[in-house]
Amino acid sequence: MKNSRICPKCNSNNIVRIDGYAGAYGSGNNIMIGHSIFSAVNVNRYICCSCGYTEEWIDKEDIGKIVNSKKAKR
Fold first, then answer.
1. How far is CA 34 from the centre of its chain?
2. How far apart are CA 1 and CA 46, in angstroms?
């Protein structure tokens, strides 16, 4: 859905993106990898406005932060 802009469930192209953010006390759509909001990795949501299907994506430049985080478990 992120790349194709087409919903995989209903084939609609009525897709919106809601940007992730880090707010006070860790609020928002993010993954906390440290102790402050400055270390948060934003999680962006893609939503089909026809059927309600959603996907969450992390920007490629932030994946390394998660991989190298002490909180990451395999």
1. 17
2. 7
Q: How many CB atoms lie within 10 A of CB 20?
A: 20
Q: Which residues contact 49 (CB under 8 A, 6 or more apart)?
A: 12, 14, 15, 16
Length of the chain measured in residues = 74
Give the Cα separation of 29 and 74 in Å (integer): 22
3-state secondary structure of 47: strand
pTM: 0.83
Q: Give the tens place of pLDDT for each residue, 44-73.
A: 999 999 999 999 999 999 999 999 887 787
Can you name the residues that pair with 56 across neighbouring β-strands? 45
The strand pairing partners of 16, in sequence order, are 47
Please say whether the beta carbons of 33 and 71 come within 8 A: yes
- Output phi, psi for 45, to 5 deg: -110, 140
